[in-house]
TrEMBL record:
It is found in: Cell membrane. The chain crosses the membrane at residues 76-96, 117-141, 193-220, 253-277, 289-308, 320-337, 343-363, 384-401, 407-427. PROSITE patterns: MFS. PANTHER family: INTEGRAL MEMBRANE EFFLUX PROTEIN-RELATED, MAJOR FACILITATOR SUPERFAMILY ASSOCIATED DOMAIN-CONTAINING PROTEIN. It comes from Micromonospora gifhornensis. The lineage of its organism: Bacteria, Bacillati, Actinomycetota, Actinomycetes, Micromonosporales. InterPro entries: MFS_dom, MFS_trans_sf, TM_effector. This is MFS transporter. It holds the Pfam family MFS_3.
């Protein structure tokens, strides 16, 4: 939710692996489908599917931990729900990247959303029948997280097969805007209101949204399987991408930094619900109030996506990345020094603006210095570190809270995020320029 990995819609540029020819049977070509130069009806149906699917994501990621508080007050068990949701990124990120390059991407998205709708629908029924439990939440979180790895990886790759390359910046921008707004701006407060009305409603809502996304994807039409030259094993495909990422010092450093920074944010937000929600909590918010607090961060991220280029021009790439890392440290450490929700909301908002520049700069850089034929697999390897660290962060946050208390989590994670500034010795403007020259 608060990590600094790339937005789904902007991870695949024109010319990446996913821009290869689709298999025979794709109905109109990208150029034909856009008619007079617009983005085309198929694009807008994909846009609609992405909007409702990301709204469901935003609700679930907040609703599941809030629902867990109704079954247990243990920080470890509550944090374990977030760990179960993000654990599939650690287990399945690399295979998902390789599979999506072999299968029809739209069909993968259809199956993934159908599975998520079924899981949340079943959970809503169980809660309504008073058969819910913390362990059932774990099962549903893990299943939904597994489907997310396939859906998000497919969503990164399908867009260049829908619109001409010249229109990708415009198409990506509009898709990213709705994903961000739905997932991080609308979803969190809506989750708080739904949970306040009843956990069953909070689970039924995302199920219905994912079902609606399935309908929209069915209307996209066409086949989206990339033609492959030669044969190779899944293991060989994965290994080639991992080798390139690990041997490239700049990419390796950035990947490790984002992995640890996401560990700190996940550890913080996995237990923040216990620190913030309820009359006996330190902050004393209601469920809707908690959703609004997180919306302040999301609003900053949305605004940051609009001004990131200006921040980069003003500070330069390396300095902007350093400022973004400081912003992460301030965001995760702020609850340790203030329990005023208005102060925290202001810090979250400004921090969201600054940390967005990390994603914008590093995604563009990775696209420029990674060979096109490896970009999909390098992206999945990068996401393994970026998202795979999240379940560990959730468990670390819960464990630290159990032993030292909730406030200690925020202090420790803030200090750890500041230590990551050591990586900026290798992430310099000179190193970035040299990597771009070598790629060219």
């Amino acid at each position: 939710m608060t990590g600094v990995d790339e937005p789904v819609a902007t991870a695949q540029p024109a010319g990446s692996e996913s821009t290869g020819a689709v298999s025979a049977g794709l109905e109109p070509t990208a150029a034909e489908s856009t008619g007079t130069g617009g983005l085309g009806g198929r694009y807008w149906r994909l846009w609609s599917a992405s909007a409702v699917s990301n709204l469901a994501d935003g609700i679930v990621k907040i609703a599941l931990p809030l629902a867990a508080v109704g079954y247990t007050t243990s920080p470890v068990l509550v944090a374990g729900v977030a760990a179960a949701f993000s654990l599939p990124w650690l287990l399945f990120a690399l295979p998902a990247g390789a599979l999506v390059d072999r299968l029809d991407r739209r069909r993968v998205m259809l199956v993934a959303n159908s599975l998520r709708a079924a899981l949340l629908g079943a959970l809503a029924l169980a809660v309504a029948l008073d058969a819910g439990s913390i362990w059932l939440l774990y099962v549903v979180a893990f299943g939904a997280g597994t489907a997310e790895t396939l859906y998000d990886t497919s969503a990164q790759s399908i867009l260049p097969q829908l619109v001409p390359r010249a229109m990708l910046p415009r198409a990506n921008g509009r898709l990213y805007a709705v994903e961000l707004a739905a997932n991080q701006f609308v979803g969190p407060p809506l989750a708080g209101f739904l949970v306040a009305g009843g956990v069953a409603y909070a689970m039924l809502g995302p199920a219905g949204l994912w079902a609606a996304a399935v309908v929209a994807l069915l209307l996209v039409g066409g086949r989206f399987r990339v033609a492959r030259q030669g044969t190779s094993t899944l293991r060989a495909d994965i290994a080639e991408g991992v080798r390139f990422l690990w041997r490239h010092r700049l990419l390796r450093t950035l990947a490790l930094m984002v992995g640890v920074s996401n560990l700190t944010t996940t550890a913080t937000f996995a237990v923040l619900v216990l620190y913030a929600v309820g009359p006996n909590s330190a902050i004393g918010l209601s469920e809707p109030g908690y959703g609004l607090l997180l919306t302040a961060l999301a609003a900053g991220i949305v605004l940051g996506s609009l001004v990131a280029a200006r921040i980069e021009r003003l500070l330069g790439r390396a300095r902007a990345l350093g400022v973004a890392m400081i912003a992460i440290a301030v965001v995760v450490g702020a609850p340790a020094v203030s329990t005023n929700p208005f102060v925290l909301g202001g810090i979250f908002f400004v921090g969201g603006i600054l940390l967005t520049s990390w994603s914008v700069i590093t995604v563009s850089l990775r696209q420029q210095i990674t060979p096109d034929r490896l970009l999909g697999r390098v992206n999945s390897g990068y996401r393994l570190l970026a998202w795979g660290s999240m379940p560990l962060g959730a468990l670390v946050g819960g464990g630290l809270a159990e032993v030292f208390g909730l406030q200690a989590v925020f202090v420790i994670m803030g200090v750890l995020a500041l230590i990551l500034l050591v990586g900026m010795f290798w992430v310099t403007d000179a190193a970035i320029d040299a990597a771009e020259r070598a790629a060219a």
